[in-house]
Amino acid sequence: MPLDYYEDEDEKDSGAKGARKDFDCPECSANNPLEDALKDGLEVLCNYCGCEFLVKATDNGRFKFREL
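Predicted structure:
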């Protein structure tokens, strides 16, 4: 199980914490819409490849993902 976080490279990031309602899967690059906004500690599932990730919010408002 990898311990490293993958940083979200999506240029659509608004910089406002909690404003993002989608994420790009670090494994397959598919865009995944979410019902609720991304936030620190949230577990998300890629609807395309099935990988699960733990979300980590950074101080600058970006998000990182760790595979579960």
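Summary: The longest strand covers residues 52-57.
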